[in-house]
Specification:
- The protein is mostly helical and 119 residues long.
- It folds into two domains: 32 residues; 86 residues, no CATH class.
- The chain has three helices and two strands; from the N terminus they run H-E-E-H-H.
- The longest helix has 40 residues.
- The chain starts with a helix and ends with a helix.
């Protein structure tokens, strides 16, 4: 009887802890914010910081930076236009990062060949 009670208690504790872990994981996913890949205002194209600190805004989990607060109202008039522009910038940023990784791997591979040739 005592063994059954302990077994039930342990199972209940395991279920509760797995539930807490799942909730924490969901919270982390829902609070993730994409980082902003541009050095310019998404609306005006002005260099960020040229007019003071950038105005940072989060729209549906995406970080957006403007040169000033008034650009936010322009963004909100037609966010899809600007989100497409941002998506294109992120894609370009990712492909250039991939090219850099590929180039570094290629250079490392060539260095290995150079060493083989000298031995």
């Amino acid at each position: 009887m005592k063994s059954t009670h302990i077994h039930i208690t342990v199972c209940a504790a395991l279920l509760m802890s797995s539930s807490v872990i799942a909730e924490q994981s969901e919270m982390k996913e829902s609070t993730k914010v994409d980082t902003y890949p541009l050095s310019t205002c998404l609306v005006s194209g002005e260099e960020l910081g040229a007019m003071g600190d950038p105005f940072v805004f989060h729209y549906e989990g995406t970080e957006i930076r403007f040169c000033c607060e008034s650009c936010q109202s322009d963004f909100l008039k037609d966010p899809e236009v600007y989100l497409k522009k941002l998506a294109a910038a992120k894609l370009a940023d990712q492909s250039s990062a991939g090219e850099k990784e590929g180039q570094a791997a290629s250079e490392a591979q060539h260095r290995g060949h150079d060493q083989d040739a000298t031995h």
